[in-house]
Specification:
Length: 212
């Protein structure tokens, strides 16, 4: 293979520099050490236009490299999430039972258990999970459930949204509380005449605590 003479490469380096290329870009183009390129070009004076062009190229390169790094990080995160999701197989009834108890545990200081079972969240997934728990673990029928909506949106939109999330007809959403200035509302699930279930949950929580 014919080798390009060093003096020619120096001339190429000078021309590339005048076109606004950085030392790194020139190094990649002519395969010469960056220190050598810096020595060759130390006396090369650039015009204001050339300097501005070089700054623009540096900025664009930095932005592109940043976008590539972010894309790579997001790809890695997504791969980890998919891999981790595969670790969860079928959830047994006992696992569902314990998961619901621990989820409800956070409500213990907020609610009077003797007045019944309440659960509040703005997270649709948690709402769906707790309804599933009430049905399969608590053996609660739909007729025993009521909902309270807290929202900063219109009543009609809020009812339609939570009706779709829960799968319950809109007639179940009879109590709507408007929170002025609230950008995000939440749903409270109430179980009617549920003092016995509430006491059961209290006992289950105590049992878990004793095992820790």
């Amino acid at each position: 293979m014919v080798q390009t003479p060093i003096r020619f490469k120096k001339g190429i380096a000078i021309e590339l520099r005048k076109k606004g290329l950085s030392y790194s870009e020139i190094k990649n183009s002519i395969n010469i050490p960056k220190s050598t390129i810096a020595y060759w070009l130390k006396n090369i004076k650039l015009s204001d236009l050339q300097i501005e062009k070089l700054k623009t190229r540096r900025s664009e390169t930095a932005k592109l490299n940043s976008e590539k790094r972010i894309s790579k990080i997001l790809e890695t995160i997504e791969n980890i999430k998919k891999s981790s999701a595969k670790n969860i197989k079928k959830i047994s009834k006992r696992e569902l039972w314990l998961m619901g108890i621990v989820l409800y545990w956070r409500e213990k200081n907020k609610n009077d258990f003797y007045k019944g079972v309440y659960f509040s969240s703005s997270n649709p997934a948690l709402i769906k999970f707790f309804l599933k728990w009430l049905k399969e673990i608590g053996r609660i029928d739909n007729e025993e459930i009521a909902f309270d909506i807290f929202t900063g949106k219109s009543k009609k939109d809020a009812i339609a949204y939570w009706s779709e999330i829960t799968g319950f007809p809109e007639k179940y959403f009879t109590r709507i509380y408007i929170q002025k200035g609230a950008s995000k509302g939440f749903l409270r699930i109430r179980v009617r005449a549920s003092s016995m279930l509430a006491r059961q949950i209290t006992g289950w929580i105590d049992g878990i605590y004793e095992c820790l």
